[in-house]
Amino acid sequence: MIRGSIVAIVTPMSDDGAVDFPALQRLVEWHIAEGTDGIVAVGTTGESATLDVEEHVAVIKCVVDIVRKRVPVLAGTGANSTAEAIELTAEGRNAGADACLLVTPYYNKPPQEGLYRHFKAVAEAVDVPIVLYNVPGRTGCDMLPATVQRLAAIDNIVGLKEAKGELDRVRELLQLPLPERFSLLSGDDATACESILLGFKGDISVTANVAPRLMHQMCAAALAGDRAAAGAADSRLRLLHKNLFVEPNPIPVKWALQAMQRIGGGIRLPLVPLDPAYHTTVREALRAAGAL
Questions:
Q1: CB atoms < 10 A from the CB of 290, how many?
Q2: Is 161 a catalytic residue?
């Protein structure tokens, strides 16, 4: 079962936008040393939307090779075309990922039946564990709990990253009769602590990029039911949960990692470096979490 603090890792880039594989290697080793429980390669935070297929696969393979089975690696392989999602998921499996994370198809706004058939088609075409990903704020598409329940009956669909950011949705999902193997995971750092205390199994996190040890400690305490310890850790992280989204992700978190001297400043258009007006805001959050 996938659980704990799972970082949606950035894809480091040089100033010309080329993927910086040595920096990626250093980041992965740092995360493992700091206690991160799993790594998502080439998710939204990893700028999947601007990497071509060759780069996409190369980043997944790089992370898999560095991790060497020390923690689970999830490959972001979603697409708004079912055929493309099948192709990317097969590439993720072939690159050695332990599971694949598939976002709901974006922009074309499929109905619930379309979502069910999309994920069912991918699961049947590629023999790899699949984690669903619902983030309606980005995709314009909300996968409802009833559809999650239908999909959870498919053997190799093993979890959901729920990023709607509403605790009512968390409670609704927890009431579903889901298989034991199925992990409900938060995809919203601001509500992750409470979601895990309520019964979720972990958090696929942006914040973990810059505060991996504290995020691991928060998730571990929440999984143990220790509300006081989880809340204490989360209170130190709260500004990060907020301020890492002052501009669209991953703009602020890449700037934060650059400020921490862990990566360079590369980011790909149409994203741009963090507006200087927000530098102090993000720096204050890093200091509050002890990351600077």
A1: 11
A2: yes
Residue 100 lies in a domain: yes
Q: Which residues fall within 8 angstroms of residue 131, CB to CB, at 6 or more apart? A: 2, 74, 99, 100, 101, 102, 157, 158, 159, 160, 161, 183, 185
Bridge-partner residues for 41, per DSSP?
75
pLDDT tens, residue by residue, 61-87: 999 999 999 999 999 999 999 999 999
- Split at pLDDT 50, 70, 90, the class of 1 is confident
Looking at the chain, the number of H-run helices and the number of E-run strands are: 12, 8
pTM above 0.90, yes or no: yes
- Give the Cβ contact number of residue 78 at 10 Å: 28
Range of the domain at 87: 4-226
**What CATH number is given to the structural domain containing 38?**
3.20.20.70
Candidates 61, 116, 161, 254; catalytic one = 161
Give the burial string for 251-276 (b: 16+ CB within 10 Å, else e).
Answer: bbbbbbbbbeebbeebbbeebeebee
In the set 133, 164, 201, 254, the catalytic residue is: 133
Convert the pLDDT of each residue in 2-20 to its tens digit.
Answer: 999 999 999 999 999 999 9
Could you tell me if residue 288 is inside a domain?
no
Active site residue 133: yes
> Structure tokens of 183?
């992990």
Instruction: State the Cα–Cα distance between residues 271 and 261, nearest whole angstrom.
Output: 20
Tell me if 237 is assigned to some domain: no
Whether 71 maps to a domain, the answer reads yes
